[in-house]
Structures are given as C-alpha cells and as structure tokens.
Amino acid sequence: MKRATIAEIPWDQPATMIDLEGRVPIIGTIRECALHFTLYKPHAKENARLLLTVPVHREGRATRTWLLEPAEIAVLAARLAEAGGETAH
Description:
Order of helices and strands: EEHHEEH
Distance between the termini: 40 Å
Oligomer: single chain
Protein name: Sulfatase-modifying factor protein
Number of helices: 3
Number of domains: 1
C-alpha cells in the first residue's frame, strides 16, 4: 500500500486552518489554506496549524498525522507557488 505524503495532498481536499491563539479558523480546501498561510505575518505563521480530513505520512515516522505544523504548511505554500497558483505579495 502506498503511503500518502504531504507532497501528494490534493489541492481540493477539505481542511481547516487553526490558530493556537484562538482566532477564527479558516475552513476551506488545502489550496485556500496554503494561500492564506502566505498572507500571515511571521508570528501568525508560527501559530498556524492545518487540520486535515485525510491523514498523511510524515517522512521518518511510522504513524500518520491529521495535523500539519507550520514548516509543513510552508512546504504546501511553496508547492502552490511552484504550480503557478496565486500567492500573496
């Protein structure tokens, strides 16, 4: 069985961007959440987490995760930029 990784998360998969400081969550798709992440100031990026609807495998770990950390969200944002998706300026 193939293990789904962060690089393989489809852009249209539902997800929720949450903030550890309790701000209003963003409920949308992976693409929308990655785009919003590019708009965040550094402090907000540090507090952002992305709740998935389908768990993915992390490199070097045996278990899957439902929650992406800021560095992993940044990877999605970079993937979006490389794919020619919209990015914040």
